[in-house]
From TrEMBL:
<comment type="similarity">
    <text>Belongs to the ABC transporter superfamily.</text>
</comment>
<dbReference type="InterPro" id="IPR050319">
    <property type="entry name" value="ABC_transp_ATP-bind"/>
</dbReference>
<feature type="domain" description="ABC transporter">
    <location>
        <begin position="3"/>
        <end position="257"/>
    </location>
</feature>
<dbReference type="InterPro" id="IPR027417">
    <property type="entry name" value="P-loop_NTPase"/>
</dbReference>
<dbReference type="InterPro" id="IPR013563">
    <property type="entry name" value="Oligopep_ABC_C"/>
</dbReference>
<keyword id="KW-0813">Transport</keyword>
<keyword id="KW-1003">Cell membrane</keyword>
<dbReference type="Pfam" id="PF00005">
    <property type="entry name" value="ABC_tran"/>
</dbReference>
<protein>
    <submittedName>
        <fullName>ABC transporter ATP-binding protein</fullName>
    </submittedName>
</protein>
<dbReference type="Pfam" id="PF08352">
    <property type="entry name" value="oligo_HPY"/>
</dbReference>
<dbReference type="InterPro" id="IPR017871">
    <property type="entry name" value="ABC_transporter-like_CS"/>
</dbReference>
<feature type="domain" description="ABC transporter">
    <location>
        <begin position="297"/>
        <end position="546"/>
    </location>
</feature>
<dbReference type="GO" id="GO:0005524">
    <property type="term" value="F:ATP binding"/>
</dbReference>
<keyword id="KW-0472">Membrane</keyword>
<keyword id="KW-0067">ATP-binding</keyword>
<dbReference type="GO" id="GO:0055085">
    <property type="term" value="P:transmembrane transport"/>
</dbReference>
<dbReference type="GO" id="GO:0016887">
    <property type="term" value="F:ATP hydrolysis activity"/>
</dbReference>
Length: 557
């Protein structure tokens, strides 16, 4: 057995209270094995303990962590291994690939320098030998022009390429075990597909074990041999991947499988974990959309270019958005999909004039948003709002939630006094499913899903008619994602809101959208009602996007 975790407990010291040390138990006595040349997936929501379990293997936990049990790697108990010996194992025998490559790669060193470091340290290579091997590694993970890319810095590469560099670094010393912690969560479906196929291929080539951590059972079904399902620090179920998908035993496993949006089914609401465990049935029919609803927003030939210096005096134009046309009806949702670099986010930000456009017009209530200025534009900004991808960065950490909600009302003169604004903030925080007590707390006291609800409530303070949602659920667990998507649908039905929903996840877009706009390299390559586009995509690029969506074990089998 390559790795055997036996009765592992992990607690975090939280400081003294009443003279006694308080401990938070994050992992509560779990056991599982990773055989040689096989892939074992740890699955669960945020807070389930899966990443803590993985980081316990090499003791990459903070100083206030305490571990008990046994972690046997090729028979050696890593829990009782000295730091010097553990450092020799890290990177050489056991390597890690983390979720966010940009925070894992050093921004001040080139890719080549970072690849050479473990080769020189662990493999005893000379700098020249390491440089040759680094080029081979970049070629192996599918990065074009590897010799030139060795000289590049991380910020000069796309997210998918950065993740490939991380995989190359992890494989540099030919480890026996690779730990991959949410390695595809932030990637587009096509890049995610490439990274999953790459990891599976490299695992076979190098005959190594792979511990793959994810919250998405659709992804897990395509790469794993065995699955370990965790919740609240405990193992709820472990079984071969075929059994998990065809005959799950635990109610939590069944709920995880049920709450992800599907490309085949079309429920009015997504099931959430607690609903499924409680045995509630899925709601199949939602509120019908009015096909004759008035158009609230119309874009004509919307363009956005960026200019870069070229040579001493020259400029080079990069056309990010090349002339987009669409209509958005009241109470409807326009989904915008495409890979990174397709121009979908730039298009959304240009609509809001967070990027100044270089051409076209955007008609809202009969007026061109792109030509407005001063007080007229300020009034119009109330009516079209944005929810960003990262709720951690979009909320002011120094403001309470109450201050966050009241401030935009004060700026735009909504409500006659502070008491009225606070009453409105209270009603809105409850509308998005949070208690009134949340108003007195700060953003760091909430989970990612709760913060996204707060961001939505902040938008609603101004009575908007249109919301631009830029990857608003892509950073969330599938169960939390389901809650936020259901909330968006409820708010649309209740308030008649219109959404521009930007995403790389076609299953999510199918659930929430009425019409879909597919972008590639700044152009709209296809536009159609959602059911028509999913059933009969006309463009090869759209078919490629659909084909890359993880469908779980059965589709892969």
């Amino acid at each position: 057995m390559l790795l055997s975790i036996q009765d592992l407990k992990v607690a975090f010291r939280m400081g003294k209270q009443g003279g006694e040390m308080q401990r938070q138990l994050a992992v509560k006595g779990i056991s599982f094995d990773v055989p040689e040349n096989s892939t074992v997936a740890l699955v669960g929501e945020s807070g389930s303990g899966k990443s803590v379990t993985a980081m316990s293997i090499l003791n990459l936990l903070p100083e206030n962590a305490e571990r008990e049990g046994r972690i046997l790697f090729q028979g050696k108990d890593l829990l009782h291994t000295g730091l010097r010996e553990l450092q020799a194992i890290r990177g050489k025998e056991i390597a890690c690939v983390f979720q966010d490559p940009m925070s894992s790669l050093n921004p001040v060193f080139t890719v080549g320098q970072q690849l050479c470091e473990p080769l020189i340290k662990h493999m005893g290579m000379s700098p020249r030998q390491a440089w040759v091997r680094a080029e081979e590694l970049l070629h192996e993970v599918g990065i074009p022009e590897p010799k030139r890319r060795l000289q590049a810095y991380p910020h000069e590469m796309s997210g998918g390429q950065q993740q490939r560099v991380m995989i190359a670094m992890a494989l540099a010393c030919e480890p026996k075990l690779l730990i991959a912690d949410e390695p595809t969560t932030a990637l587009d479906v096509t890049i995610q597909r490439q990274v999953l196929e790459l990891m599976a291929k490299l695992k076979e080539k190098h005959k190594m074990g792979l511990l793959f951590i994810s919250h998405d059972l659709g992804v897990v079904g395509e790469i794993s041999d065995h699955v370990v399902v965790m919740r609240h620090g405990e193992v709820r179920e472990k079984a071969p991947v075929a059994q998990i998908f065809s005959n799950p035993q635990d109610s939590y496993t069944k709920a995880l499988l049920a709450c992800r949006p599907s490309l085949t089914e079309n429920p009015a609401r997504l099931m959430v974990i607690d609903d499924h465990i409680a045995g509630k049935a899925a709601q199949q029919h939602g509120k019908a959309k009015d096909p004759n609803a008035p158009v609230v927003l119309r874009a004509k030939g919307l363009k956005k270019s960026f200019w870069f210096k070229e040579g001493l005096f020259g400029k080079k134009e990069f056309k990010a958005v090349k002339g987009v046309d669409f209509e958005l009806k009241k109470g409807h949702t326009l989904g915008v999909v495409g890979e990174s670099g397709s121009g979908k986010t730039t298009m959304g930000l240009t609509l809001l004039r967070l990027h100044e456009p270089t051409g076209g017009e955007v008609l809202f209530d009969g007026q061109d948003l792109l030509k407005m200025s001063g007080p007229d534009w300020q009034k119009m900004r109330r009516r079209i709002q944005v929810v960003f991808q990262n709720p951690y960065a979009s909320l002011n950490p120094r403001f309470t939630i109450g201050q966050t909600l009241v401030e935009p009302m004060e700026i735009h003169g909504i409500g006659k006094d502070h008491a009225e604004r606070l009453a409105r903030a209270t009603a809105l925080i409850q509308k998005v499913g949070l208690p009134e007590a949340a108003l007195h707390k700060y953003p760091h006291e909430f989970s990612g899903g709760q913060r996204q609800r707060i961001a939505i409530a902040r938008c609603l303070t101004l009575n908007p008619e249109v919301l631009v949602l830029d990857e608003a659920v892509s950073a969330l667990d599938v169960s939390v994602q389901a809650q936020v998507l259901n909330l968006l649908k409820d708010l649309q039905d209740e308030l008649g809101l219109s959404y521009i929903f930007i995403s790389h996840d076609l299953a999510v877009v199918k659930f929430i959208s009425d019409e879909v706009l597919v972008m590639q390299h700044g152009d709209v390559v296809e536009q159609a009602p959602v059911q028509e586009l999913m059933a009969n995509p006309r463009q090869e690029y759209t078919r490629k996007l659909l084909g890359a969506v993880p469908r779980g074990y059965q589709a892969a089998a």
